[in-house]
Amino acid sequence: MNKIGLIVGREYLTRVRKKSFLITTIAVPLVMVGFYAVILMIAFKGSSDQQKIAVVDKAGIFSDSLFASSKKESIQYDLIKSADADAISTGYKDKGYDAVLQIPQLDIDNPTGIVIHSQSSLSLTTTSRIENMVDNVILDKRLQIQGIDPESYKKLNASVNIENTIDTKDGSKKSVAGVAYAVSFACGMLIYIMMIIYGAQVMRGVMEEKTNRIAEVVVSSVKPFQLMMGKILGIGAVGLTQFSIWIVLTVLAQAVVPLIFPELMQKMNSVSPEETTSMAATITQGISSLPLLKIGLSFMFYFIGGYLTYASLFAAVGSVVSEDQQEAQQLMFPILMPIILGFVIMMQAVNVPHSTLAIFGSIFPLTSPIVMMGRITYDIPVWQMATSMILLIACFLFFTWVTAKIYRTGILMYGKKPSWKEMLKWGFRKG
Amino acid sequence: MALLEVNNLVKQFATQKAVNDISFKIEAGSIFGLLGPNGAGKTTLLRMITGIFLPDSGSINFHGKPFNVLEDTIQIGYMPEERGLYKKMKIGEQAVYLARLKGLKSKDAEQRVKEWFTRLEMQSWWDKKVEDLSKGMQQKLQFVTTVAHNPSLIILDEPFSGLDPVNANLIEAEIFELAKNGATIIFSTHRMSQVDEICDHIVMINKGEKVLDGTVNDVKQQYKDNVFQLTASTVAENMMTSLFDVVDHKPDTLRYKLNKGVQSNDVLKYFIENGVQIDGFEEVMPTINDIFIKLVEGTANAREFTRTK
After folding, report:
1. Chain A residue closest to B49 (CA)?
2. Interface ipTM above 0.90
3. pLDDT (tens digit per residue) in A105-116
């Protein structure tokens, strides 16, 4: 056992000391924060992207007063007097307009033939905003014809907001669907990415040892199983380290960003202070409504369980191929299949957490690490959780037992790639 | 007492018997040559002795007790034919790591490795990476990692391949030194000239079976052809005799093979009586290479070998 420790130490230290580890570990949260900053910038930048649209209204349903408030919004409308209508239709670009909205004589009950001219195609959001604006104007017109006051019509609109309260043993909590969804999805996604990245690292490590022929030197000192487990555990520890650093850095960065870009935050606050605070409050509330400890512990369990299960498979693949990358790709494919399947089921499970497929996916050990994390923010029956965990542990033990034998044979074999049949024979033979 | 005793080892792979019923003994402190053409089963045999493979049947006794993989690996140093080192790892660190894997404590490992580095003039390499070394330098490093934990049995598979003559002599001297200090050395090769110089005892295997076993001298005695060389100026008429067959005749030397029942003295007497002035006389011993080729010639595995000797 002491020797496994030595191997784990080497695998861990050589990776952690590499420059590339430092770079990815620091760059990833920086990129994330960068994205975050860019998104905020775009969201609050506004004015420079304002579009000016000329409105030629032959139906006479618009008025200047209607557009008075559009000066500061992302689309500025100008009502064109009928005298200038022909001039603007041909020369709107020269007059500083991005597009001309042509409203023909309209039958208010069946408004057709509304056209917008532009030099380049308008974005989907711009088009839908304009449609929305025209819709509202026509609605108002129709209300007037029916003799209904638009103001009182708006008051009739209920706009109900239903709050979901979850009853737990320690009292009821407010749930926020969006937050639960996001956390589930993020956890499942993380496990998915980590399993693939670190699994592939295990495979490459084993291939390196095999092609370097160091494997033969090492297995004359330790058992092949110790070498394999040492590598798997060492790389897993690297994964956990990297992950912890990311969490710490992300938390730090989020605290630091407002200090570096104070004007950004000011802008954010000045735009709609109530909205931001209420949004923040909603998110905090949403997060506090989640069983955080349970999520954290399950994440650790499923990350470790899933990683160990797949890493042993990746190690077996690495041990049977030689230098040929293409062979490795081919053999990796059957391993990636259940991981990808798990990801697909997880996407569905975050939406419908109690569907048969989601329940199956979260119990079946090859997909459970990903799918269970996708359901984790929802209430999962104890029996499902327990079955899933026990099966995952059993699956890990079984795979390690089989793959260790494949590894033991493969690591010292050179030349021809063995067939699946041969590999299975190695895996299940006695002794 | 024999340090290592191998009894009736058999190892079978899916298609063929790689090692078929091989037995031999190695005395402590001797240099033992394991010879055989490519594919004869040498590597498989060595892998069983190092505990990498388990034999299908047969037994290995080490220090008089059944070989125990877990306990005895620290006593064995194995340098495989295909050299293996971590390319990206620093040299000193790597040597210490491999010594620790054998079971040495961190401090001892470092001290031993440093001693060896000094001995082979490698101190300045400590912080370099393996990929920065030439092939011969890697070879030296590999040798150090094999012997650093002071094993009582050192197994060297083709230790001189890739070394220049200076470094080859250096390693050879170290091998003799290790043997003098009590280590037993198994030396696997298909370069026979080295065997003549280095080994005390040899075993030759071909196609998984032992074909020869004995000390270098015994083996040569056993396979000598009764060929003698005479340094003397002889003429063709001298050959008209039934005492010997001519192997090679030059004006000043004659190689001949004695016919059955004829003693060397008979031949010498014959020449003296014919008035031939004899300047030298010796028996021509076969080289290990000759014996080797004689034994494995004609078998499929050996063909490639005889061409490249």
Report:
1. A220
2. no
3. 878 788 888 888
